[in-house]
Amino acid sequence: MEKPILGISMGDPFGNGPEITVKALADKRIYDRCRPLVVGDAASMEYAAKVAEKLSGVHLTIRPVSSVAEAQFRYGTIDVYDMGIVKAGDIPCDPADPRPFGLGATALGGEAAFSYVVKVIELAMAGEVDATITNAISKEAINMAGHHYSGHTEIYADYTHTSKYTMMLAHNDLRVVHVSTHVSLREACERVKKDRVLDVIRIANDGCKAIGIREPKIAVAGLNPHCGENGMFGTEEIEEIQPAIDAAMAEGIIIPEKKPTPPDTVFSKALGGWYDIVVAMYHDQGHIPLKVKGFVYNRALGHWDAVAGVNVTLGLPIIRASVDHGTGFGHAGDGHANELSLINAMDYGIRMANAKKGC
User: Fold this and answer.
1) CA atoms within 13 A on the CB side of 155
2) What is the number of other CB atoms lying within 10 angstroms of the CB of residue 231?
3) 135: containing domain
4) Among 91-105, 182-196, 246-260, which stretch is predicted with the lowest mean pLDDT?
């Protein structure tokens, strides 16, 4: 079986993306399973490689390329599809004295990060890479650069001409998809409509099958406390969510509860193995339990032991998996960024690419 090619967008050049990409690709096991190609700027990756070598002693060579065909995919050398946007002089740090970049969100960083994402989408749409993996971008920065999107998901939907899509978060066997994401809580409640809920249930079912789960078991969270208590605390469960569940079950989709599950218990049940995936009604309803599970802060040592979790966009014609954390501007360049979420995202990308090929 030919190993899949992963196109990895570098993320904001002044964030943690370059550093965690270098750390992830320092693991030879990645090259045993896939052919990684970073889409970004060679200057940023070279700086990150010097920081990593100073702190860990691991020497990695950055090899700029201008096409997928030029990549060698050889462990010890990181192939970088060099966009040439950020130059060495734009990085205000000395590799011999690693410290935070101190720039935060900038128009340059936003323009660069946006360009990496667009390029990796183009490569996937052209069939040159088998899956796309994204590092963190700053919504503020890309808007400063004149690209008015609320996140990766919306960029992917636009550039792949996709109208029905959703975000899936995953940490080990806990998976969540969302009826709405980057909107206000007030608008999120208004978006809980039968047709949208049904679409997300279908996408969740297909998404689980895409990673090899043959008969997915799906939970559909309620919107209101106690699922509205038969209309006492809200009627969305009765008027919108239950009709969507009934329609999905009529199509053969497995929803064990056959009704909305109270949101304060659905994730505990999912962790217990009752379901393969949970349909959440809005952004924080799904994000909070995933991050409580996957983000582990070491209070005694003052750093994150784990920043795990994957963000997968379902419903697209191409594969996209992403880290499930932000740019970490305040610590970018100091050598302490955690690469676990990127490794998890790469694992999902590999699994989905292999499943798509029937492997």
Assistant:
1) 23
2) 12
3) 1-162+316-359
4) 91-105
What are the tens digits of pLDDT across the range 42-69?
A: 999 999 998 888 777 788 999 999 999 9
Per DSSP bridges, beta strands 295-298 and 303-307 are: antiparallel
The beta strand positions in the chain, using DSSP E, are 5-9, 35-40, 61-65, 77-82, 131-134, 166-171, 174-178, 218-220, 277-280, 295-298, 303-307, 310-314, 320-323
Contact residues for 114 (Cβ-Cβ < 8 A; gap 6+): 137, 142, 145, 147, 155
Q: Of the candidates 350, 349, 327, 346, which has an alpha carbon nearest to the alpha carbon of residue 113?
A: 327
The answer to whether the predicted template modeling score (pTM) of the entire model surpasses 0.85 is: no
Give how many domains the chain has, as a whole number: 2
Residue 306 forms part of a structural domain: no
* Structure-token match 């660069």, residue found: 112
Q: Is 177 exposed, middle or buried (0-12, 13-18, 19+ CB in 10 A)?
A: buried
Residues 65 and 134 both lie in one domain: yes
Pair (132, 60) in one structural domain: yes
Indicate whether 149 and 176 sit together in one domain: no
Stretch (H or E) spanning 7:
strand 5-9
Phi and psi at residue 8, in whole multiples of 5°? -110, 110
- Cβ-contact 159, 121 below 8 angstroms: yes
Q: Are residues 26 and 141 in the same domain?
A: yes
pLDDT digits (tens, 9 = 90+) for 203-232: 999 989 888 888 999 999 999 999 999 999
Secondary structure of residue 56 in the 3-state scheme: helix
| Residues 184, 123 within the same domain | no
Residue 16: strand, helix, or coil: coil
* Residue 286 CB partners (closer than 8 Å, separation 6+): 169, 176, 177, 178, 278, 280
- Report yes or no on 307 lying in a domain: no
pLDDT of residue 194: 98
Residue whose C-alpha is closest to residue 177's, from 151, 135, 137, 205: 205
Query: Do 243 and 207 sit in the same domain of this protein?
Result: yes
| Predicted pLDDT at 95 | 55
